[in-house]
Every structure is written in structure tokens, then in C-alpha cells.
Amino acid sequence: MARQPKQIHSSLTVLFVSDLKRSQAYYRDVLGFDVTDWWAERGGLQGLALKLLQAPDASAVKPNPPEIGSTRAYDVYAYVENWTELDRLHDEFVTKGAIISGEPVVYADQGPWKEFVVQDPDGYGIAFGGVDGRKAGVPVSPIRPQIDSAILWVRDLDAAVQLYSRILGVEVREQDRYGHLHMFFLENGTSLMLDSNHMAGVPVPERAAPQLKLDCAGIDETYRYIKDQLGLEIVYEIERYPNVSFFNFRDPDGNVITVSEDH
Q1: VOC domain: which residues (predicted)?
Q2: How far is 251 from 243, CA to CA, in rounded Å?
Q3: pLDDT value of position 5
């Protein structure tokens, strides 16, 4: 079967709530979500993402009942990497005063599988669960197996922020500026950090290897956007293969970025 193009990158679970402001505050302050007027997410839009809507009346707020033979009710289920992270989430929520409607439990015949359930102010059950995630023979490390941030060194922070806002198509938010660096929090849960610390007067390198790779929808359209609209230097022309096409561009600070499209 031919590989389908990636057309859907995320989804939102819609919850009707009785008091929108109260729910937004709970998800933000207690559950640690990034809450906007459009969504509430933790871990990016590909993590746990919800759309909270003001219910037209009380009858529209309908948390799911437990399934037959169970006492636990689920409206949203989030899968967690391993039990270490699961326990950290549980401890964080308890510390912040979350309503725990289902204490942690291990189902020995299902992986084993461990889960707990948090309840929001309207009674919706938000479950968190997963397998332990550790495999025999894999070294134990305090480092989490994920890329948290990519760092690009820049000389003019304001100019770089505006440029990467256009490259990524994301909003520049004042709260994401931290002195000499700026953060872009991306949809897949990672972030791009632009850092200008001690960069004044540092020469721009003439050559560099790619520092990161960006995905795109339409390699030719993206090439024209980067070259013609943004005026950036193309340092490696489009290379085409059956399953992927890519090219490299360079920003004014000498950072080389790969852009690719899967077919």
C-alpha cells in the first residue's frame, strides 16, 4: 500500500463546560495547560489538546458515565511515555490541588498498564496511562528520550525573531521573550530557542552543517517562499527521492536549516 501524505497533524477533543473562565483557570493553573481562546493543550497540539466551549445550557455538559462493570469514567485519555513520567504528573497534579477521581492503579494483565484519572470542575474525566516503557538491555539514563529544544545562535535577536516567525508561521508572543533569548513553542511539543547571548561581534561562519530539519507541505512552494519571499540563501538545491525531497537554506546568522517533504 502506498504511503499516504501527511494531511492531519493534530486533533482537539471538544468539551462543553458550564463556566468557561473557571475551566480555563483550572486547566491552566492546576493541570499546567497552555490555555488560549482557541484551545487548551499540554505537550503541544500533538500532545493532550482540548477545545473548551461555553455550554449553551446545563444540559449540554455531559461527562461520560463509567463503562459497564467499572467505576472509572473517561472523557479524554492521554498516553504517557513511561511510569516515571506518569508518577511525576500525578504528584504535580496532587500538589496543585487537582481533583483525583481515580487513584493510580496497575492492571497486571494489560502490559502491565498503569493509570490515574483527574476530574475537571464539570466532572469530565481526564485519564493518564501507559506501560512502563523500559526494555531489557536498554541503559538507564536520567536523560529523557526526547528533544526538548533546538537552539540557534543569532546576533540580532529582534530581527531573528521576526524572521523565524515568518519561516514557521507562528505568532510572536511577548511572554516568550527571556532577556537575550526567545522561545517558539511548537505544535509537536518541542521548542525553538533563539539565543543572542555573547553573540555581538562573533563572525558569521561561511559554512555549516544543518542544525535542524523542518517539515513542509509542498517542497516547491516552500522553496519559492524561502528564496523569493524571505530572500534567504539556498545552499543546497532540491534533492528528490521516491519517499522524500529536501533542500537547505541559510539564515543571516549562518544557521543552515533543512526543509523536507515526505511523499
Answers
A1: 7-131, 146-262
A2: 27
A3: 59
Contact 102, 125 (CB under 8 A): yes
Distance, in Å, from the CA atom of 114 to the CA atom of 75, rounded to the nearest integer, reads: 17
The CATH architecture to which 146-202 belongs is 2-Layer Sandwich (3.30)
Q: Is residue 222 within 8 Å of 169, Cβ to Cβ?
A: no
Q: What is the pLDDT of residues 2-59, one digit of tens each?
A: 455 567 777 899 999 999 999 999 999 999 999 999 999 998 878 899 999 999 999 9
Q: What percentage of the chain has pLDDT greater than the value 90? A: 77
Binning the chain into helix, strand and coil, the percentages to the nearest 5 are: 20, 35, 45
Contact indicator for 119, 100 with CB cutoff of 8 Å? yes
Q: Which fold has domain 13-131?
A: 2,3-Dihydroxybiphenyl 1,2-Dioxygenase; domain 1 (3.10.180)
User: Does residue 104 have a cis peptide bond before it, meaning omega lies within 30 degrees of 0?
Assistant: no
Q: Please state whether beta strands 34-35 and 40-42 pair in parallel, antiparallel, or not at all (unpaired).
A: antiparallel
Question: In this structure, which topology does domain 206-263 adopt according to CATH?
Answer: 2,3-Dihydroxybiphenyl 1,2-Dioxygenase; domain 1 (3.10.180)
Rg over CA atoms, the chain: 22
pLDDT tens digits for 180-222?
A: 999 999 887 789 999 999 998 899 998 899 999 999 989 999 9
Every domain of the chain and the residues it spans: 13-131, 146-202, 206-263
